[in-house]
Structure to design on (324 residues):
C-alpha cells in the first residue's frame, strides 16, 4: 500500500519513514541516543554466533521493543539458501517474521545477486515471511520482486556504506511509477540532502546505517536525517515547481515609476 | 564427548540435551537460535534433542547490523 500519511506494509503501519541500522556506532549508548533522535520506529539487526569466550553487552538492553520494531537482515549471505537460513534463524531467535533480504553478489561492491535474491524472495514469501528485498536500482527487477510477493522493494541509492547519495534518480522514478508496494531507498545515503532527494522523488521511506553511525556526531546526524526525510516527504506532497531555463521575476513590474 | 560448538571443539557431557547445554553456557535466558548439523532446532524441542559425539552445534543471537 502506498500513499497516505504513514508507511504501511506487511499488515503494519509506521509514522516514521526512516529505517535505521544498529551497526557501526562507537558504542551502544550512542546508538540508543541516535535511534531516539532519528525518530525511527524500525531498526535493522543481524544474526550472528553468540560469543562464548566472554560475556558481552546485549544489544537488546539498548533497544526498547515497545518503541522499535526489529527488522533482521541477511547481511553477508551470498546464496538464496544461506539467506533463507538466516531469515529462519532470525525468526527462531524471536526477532520477527520480517526480513531485510540481502543476497550479495560481489564482495567489493556489495551489489545484490538478483537471481538469488528473487529465488530467496519466492521461498520466504511462501514460508510466511514479510520480505523487504535490498535490490539494485533496476525497474525490471523491482517489478519482478513485487510480483514475487515482496512487501516493499528497496533499491539501493549507491553501494552500501559509500555515502555517494542517489546515483540514478531517474531509475528510482521509473521504479516509483510502476510500484504498487512501498519503495524504500536502502544504502548510499551520505548526508541529509541525499535522504531529502530520495523522499522528494516520491519514495515511501529511506533505510540507512553508515550515514548516521559513521558521522562525527551520530546523534546530530540522526536528527538531521529525521528532518530531511520529513522535509523531503513534505516537498513531494507539496509538488515542486517545474525547472525552467530562464528567470521568472518574483516581483511584478506593475506599479513601477515610469 | 566432543562436539563442535560455534566453530570450535568443545567437551560436553555424553548425551547432553540442548536445554542443559544452554544452561551450562548460561544462555538459557537469552534469545537464541540453535542449529544442530545445519538443521534449526525449535525451542520446544530443546529438552528432547540430545547431542551426539561429533555434532556440529551453532548458537546464534541478535547482533548489531545494518
Amino acid at each position: 500500500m502506498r500513499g497516505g500519511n504513514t508507511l504501511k506494509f506487511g499488515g503494519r503501519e509506521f509514522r516514521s519513514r526512516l529505517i535505521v541500522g544498529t551497526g557501526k556506532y562507537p558504542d551502544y549508548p550512542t546508538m540508543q541516543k541516535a535511534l531516539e533522535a532519528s525518530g525511527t520506529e524500525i531498526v535493522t539487526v543481524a544474526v550472528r554466533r553468540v560469543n562464548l569466550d566472554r560475556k558481552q553487552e546485549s544489544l537488546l538492553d539498548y533497544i526498547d521493543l515497545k518503541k522499535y520494531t526489529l527488522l533482521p537482515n541477511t547481511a553477508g549471505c551470498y546464496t538464496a539458501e544461506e539467506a533463507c537460513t538466516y531469515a529462519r534463524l532470525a525468526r527462531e531467535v524471536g526477532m520477527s517474521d520480517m526480513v531485510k533480504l540481502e543476497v550479495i553478489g560481489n564482495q567489493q561492491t556489495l551489489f545484490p545477486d538478483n537471481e538469488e535474491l528473487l529465488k530467496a524472495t519466492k521461498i520466504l514469501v511462501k514460508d510466511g515471511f514479510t520480505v523487504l528485498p535490498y535490490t539494485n536500482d533496476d525497474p525490471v527487477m523491482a517489478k519482478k520482486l513485487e510480483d514475487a510477493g515482496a512487501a516493499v522493494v528497496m533499491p539501493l541509492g549507491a553501494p552500501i556504506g559509500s555515502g555517494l547519495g542517489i546515483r540514478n534518480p531517474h531509475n528510482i522514478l521509473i521504479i516509483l511509477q510502476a510500484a504498487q508496494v512501498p519503495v524504500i531507498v536502502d544504502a548510499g545515503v551520505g548526508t541529509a540532502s541525499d535522504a531529502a532527494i530520495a523522499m522528494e522523488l516520491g519514495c515511501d521511506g529511506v533505510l540507512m546505517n553508515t550515514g548516521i553511525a559513521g558521522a562525527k556526531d551520530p546523534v546530530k546526524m540522526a536528527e538531521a536525517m529525521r528532518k530531511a526525510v520529513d522535509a523531503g516527504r513534505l516537498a513531494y506532497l507539496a509538488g515542486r515547481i517545474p525547472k525552467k531555463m530562464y528567470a521568472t521575476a518574483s516581483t511584478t513590474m506593475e506599479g513601477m515609476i515610469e | 564427548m566432543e562436539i563442535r560448538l560455534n566453530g570450535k571443539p568443545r567437551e560436553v557431557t555424553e548425551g547432553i540435551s540442548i536445554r542443559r547445554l544452554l544452561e551450562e553456557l548460561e544462555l538459557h535466558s537469552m534469545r537464541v537460535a540453535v542449529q544442530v548439523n545445519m538443521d534449526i532446532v525449535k525451542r520446544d524441542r530443546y529438552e528432547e534433542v540430545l547431542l551426539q559425539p561429533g555434532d556440529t552445534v551453532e548458537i546464534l543471537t541478535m547482533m548489531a547490523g545494518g
